[in-house]
Amino acid sequence: VVVYVEVVVESRVVHERKFAQPKSYD
User: Fold this and answer.
1) Which uninterrupted H or E stretch holds 1?
2) Containing domain of residue 21, as a range?
3) Per-residue pLDDT of the chain (26 residues; tens, 9 = 90+)
4) Neighbour tally for 12: CB within 10 Å
5) Which DSSP letter does residue 11 get?
6) What SS3 class is residue 9?
7) Looking at the 3D structure of the chain, how many domains does it have?
8) How many CA atoms lie within 13 A of 9 on its CB side?
9) C-alpha to C-alpha distance for 16 and 6, rounded to whole angstroms
10) Cβ distance 25 to 18 under 8 Å?
């Protein structure tokens, strides 16, 4: 359960970073 929560949190952070800094992933 803890691992699942961590994955969800990381997914949100990465998703937000893609919108905040799209060039970083380009």
Assistant:
1) none
2) 1-26
3) 677 777 777 777 776 766 655 555 44
4) 10
5) H
6) helix
7) 1
8) 6
9) 15
10) yes
